[in-house]
Write a structure and sequence with these properties.
Elements lengths: L1 E3 L8 E4 L2 H4 L8 E3 L4 H14 L6 E9 L7 E9 L4 H8 L7 E2 L6 E5 L7 H8 L4 E3 L2 H11 L3 E9 L5 H23 L6
Parallel strand pairs: 2-3, 2-4, 4-9, 5-7, 7-8
Antiparallel strand pairs: 1-3, 4-8, 5-6, 5-9
C-alpha cells in the first residue's frame, strides 16, 4: 500500500492496484496504490478511509481482461461480482448471503467479475464469460470497502488482454498503453483532476 498525496473531503481519491497502471497519471489528486488482489485492495482502501479524512468519492482506475470477444477500450462498471466465492453454497450452510453482487451508483450495465486468480486459460475464461464481460482482481473488494464506509465509488477499467492463453504476457506488453488511456480518461472525466 502506498498513498501519494493527501486525502481531503473536497476531492476524490484515485485508487489503482500497481504503479504500472498509474505511470501516466499527472494529477494533483491523491493516489492510493493497493497492490494486487482482493485482500490487498480491501485492506489498503479500508485503512486509508479509516485514517480519515474521507474523500468526496473514489475512482478505481485499472486494467481488466476481456472475457468475451470484441471487448476493447475503456469501460465504466455498473455491477461487480466475485467469481471465486461460492455464495450459494455458503447460503445453504449458514442461511446468510455472502458476496452478493454490488451495483455501483450512476454507472452503466457493464458487469465486472473479480477474483484472486489471474485468468489466463480458455476454460476459466469461457466459464466466467457466462457471468460478465470483464474480469479483474480488485474491483469487488474496493466496492465492498467503499460501500461499508459510505463513500461513492466509480470503477473504470481499460481492457489489457483477452483473459485467455497468454494473457499474462499480453498484460505486461500492454499495461503502459492502458495506463496512458486511463490517465486520459481521468483527465477528461474527473473535474478536479488537475489543480
Amino acid at each position: 500500500m502506498e498513498l501519494l498525496g493527501d486525502i481531503t473531503p473536497d476531492r476524490p481519491l484515485l485508487v489503482l492496484a500497481v504503479k504500472e497502471e498509474a505511470q501516466f497519471l499527472d494529477t494533483a489528486l491523491p493516489v492510493l496504490l493497493t497492490g494486487m488482489g482482493k485482500v490487498n485492495a480491501a485492506t489498503a482502501l479500508a485503512t486509508a478511509l479509516a485514517r480519515g479524512p474521507r474523500p468526496s468519492g473514489i475512482v478505481n482506475l485499472g486494467t481488466a481482461g476481456a472475457l468475451r470477444s470484441g471487448w476493447t477500450g475503456t469501460h465504466v462498471v455498473g455491477t461487480v461480482v466475485q467469481h471465486d466465492l461460492d455464495g450459494e453454497l455458503l447460503a445453504t450452510l449458514t442461511g446468510e448471503t455472502y458476496g452478493a453482487p454490488i451495483a455501483l451508483p450512476d454507472a452503466g450495465d457493464v458487469v465486472l467479475a473479480t477474483g484472486d486468480a489471474f485468468i489466463s486459460d480458455e476454460a476459466a475464461r469461457a466459464r466466467l464469460a457466462e457471468r460478465a464481460p470483464l474480469v479483474d482482481m480488485e474491483g469487488y473488494a474496493l466496492a465492498a470497502a467503499a460501500e461499508l464506509a459510505g463513500v461513492p465509488l466509480r470503477i473504470v477499467k481499460h481492457v489489457s488482454d483477452e483473459a485467455g492463453d497468454g494473457a499474462d504476457r499480453t498484460w505486461r506488453e500492454s499495461v503502459a498503453a492502458c495506463s496512458r488511456e486511463l490517465a486520459d480518461w481521468a483527465a477528461a472525466h474527473i473535474p478536479a483532476y488537475r489543480a
